[in-house]
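Each letter names a residue; structure tokens follow underneath. Both lines appear below:
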Amino acid sequence: MCVFLEVSRSLVYYHLNKEPNVSSKEEEIIEEHIKEIFRLSRNNYGTRKIKVELKKLGYQVSRKKIARLMRKNSLVSNYTVPQYMVL
């Protein structure tokens, strides 16, 4: 069958043994937690502090994933506004 479809056997076994990613339902739950933590912090928390709060709730999420979910929901910390120095 691999010859007929012109794919290698290793590719077939790779996809069969590949672990599924975090389910979308679990990601939605994490997204709701991020929104709630951000709201309770009065829009002050960034990815680092949100990661700490999620860890307290029992979730292990990378900062990049938190940042991606924050960007998706347009959540921007008050402290990320660029600061300008007068010279």
Summary: Helices lie at 2-5, 9-17, 24-40, 47-57, 63-72.
